[in-house]
């Protein structure tokens, strides 16, 4: 009888917690509006909204596979299945054309759509909740100016039971706190502005902070490194893997152009970030750089290792390196037209896994459209999986003092399956 009562009590308690959590997070639908009811927005607000959309990389997630801006449908892989980004154009049927501003702000701050449905935290409202009314209003005004495009997002493909949206209510109880940004009086204006953007709309921690088994960011390990679209997002805090400590000037150049002499070129998802920031006001990019540089202020420069006798490589791998890599990456003091830097400076080669190195070798680095920039050809169509894995291991041994990777071949196979090829 005692065991039965105990089990009954546990079951009843769990049910009450679930129902209480659902009731606490329940939100009613917000009535739709007609397209003509939007009213007019001033040009300054629309311009500011465009800047904020670029800072938040909104179109990178919400661009349709056919190229239409903000039309959604991009697959976002998660440990729980695939989530497809929504259409945020002002289309009345499949977008947010009938959303009043209050519904948009609720989605951004609370993770609830106009109809009252819980939004999955792949949409980073845990960061967007920090944004001001003025900035969310400007972002809303900008999105209303976009070309309406009728395109419904595919149904999410989530592992059971994660397709049941009310589960998100429980996740929010555990991990989500709605809160506005509060500046620190002891810091300067640039630092506070940078922190507001980095922790808010830019949601840098979404990639650069590790996550727990429930998919929530580990608050105790902020900016300690994470994973984004199969790439390793390096630590931004004092655990930075960079040979030279990032300072605000170097970061400003890197974020604005996608390249810096002491750190190399942006690749993977970070290349999209720098492409967007290249069109953002220098004041905001500088503020972001000031704040991010402060996160690793306690780290110091690490002497770049030179070639040692520990390197064990076949003649084939050495020949591949000499033919494919050495002409651009040989000299640590010379940067040629491709802007290749010495591999001794590469954070990718110093990462805890081979993911970034093999993905760069597979897909290369494309120069920014319409502007000079770093460039590297793709070798995915030339080299075999084993050759790329061996090459990655070779440069790891030659240019760092870190232990050898054990996952190089696995990462090559994974990257090919995910489409990281030219």
TrEMBL record:
Keywords: Cell membrane, Heme, Iron, Membrane, Metal-binding, Repeat, Signal. InterPro entries: Cyt_c-like_dom (IPR009056), Cyt_c-like_dom_sf (IPR036909), Cytochrome_c-type_DH (IPR051459), Membr-bd_ADH_cyt_c (IPR014353). The keyword DNA-binding does not apply. It comes from the Bacteria. It is found in: Cell membrane. Residues 44-147, 189-296, 312-399 form the Cytochrome c domain. The keyword Metal-binding applies. Its main location: membrane. PROSITE patterns: CYTC. This is Cytochrome C. It comes from Bradyrhizobium canariense. The lineage of its organism: Bacteria, Pseudomonadati, Pseudomonadota, Alphaproteobacteria, Hyphomicrobiales.
């Amino acid at each position: 009888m005692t065991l039965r009562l105990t089990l009954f009590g546990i079951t009843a308690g769990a049910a009450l917690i679930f129902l209480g959590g659902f009731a606490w997070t329940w939100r009613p639908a917000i009535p739709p509006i007609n397209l003509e009811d939007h009213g007019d927005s001033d040009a300054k607000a629309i311009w500011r909204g465009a800047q904020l959309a670029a800072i938040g990389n909104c179109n990178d997630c919400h661009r349709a596979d056919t190229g239409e801006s903000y039309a959604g449908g991009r697959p976002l892989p998660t440990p729980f299945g695939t989530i497809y980004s929504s259409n945020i154009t002002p289309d009345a049927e499949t977008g947010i054309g009938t959303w009043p501003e209050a519904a948009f702000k609720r989605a951004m701050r609370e993770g609830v759509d106009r109809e009252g449905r819980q939004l999955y935290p792949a949409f980073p409202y845990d960061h967007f909740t920090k944004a001001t009314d003025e900035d969310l209003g400007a972002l809303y005004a900008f999105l209303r100016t976009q070309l309406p495009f009728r395109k419904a997002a595919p149904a999410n493909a989530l592992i059971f039971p994660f397709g049941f949206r009310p589960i998100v209510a429980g996740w929010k109880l555990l991990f989500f706190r709605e809160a506005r940004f509060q500046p620190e009086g002891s810091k300067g204006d640039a630092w506070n502005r940078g922190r507001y953007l980095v922790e808010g709309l830019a949601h840098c921690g979404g990639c650069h902070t590790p996550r727990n088994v429930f998919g929530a960011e580990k608050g105790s390990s902020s900016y300690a490194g994470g994973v984004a679209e199969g790439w390793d997002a390096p630590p931004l805090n004092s655990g930075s893997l960079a040979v030279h400590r990032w300072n605000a000037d170097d970061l400003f150049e890197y974020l604005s152009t996608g390249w810096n002499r002491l750190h190399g070129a942006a690749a993977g998802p970070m290349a999209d970030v720098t492409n967007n920031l290249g069109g953002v006001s220098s004041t905001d990019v500088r503020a972001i750089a000031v704040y991010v540089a402060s996160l690793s202020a306690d780290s110091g420069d690490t002497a770049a290792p030179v070639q040692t006798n520990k390197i064990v490589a076949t003649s084939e791998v050495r020949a591949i390196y000499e033919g494919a890599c050495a002409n651009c990456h040989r000299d640590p003091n010379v940067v040629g037209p491709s802007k290749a830097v010495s591999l001794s400076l590469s954070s990718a080669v110093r990462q805890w896994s081979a993911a970034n190195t093999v993905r760069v070798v597979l897909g290369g680095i494309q120069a920014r459209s319409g502007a000079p920039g770093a460039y590297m050809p793709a070798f995915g169509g030339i080299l075999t999986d084993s050759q790329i894995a061996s090459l990655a291991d070779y440069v790891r041994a030659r240019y760092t003092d870190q232990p050898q990777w054990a996952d190089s071949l696995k990462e090559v196979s994974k990257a090919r399956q995910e489409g990281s090829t030219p």
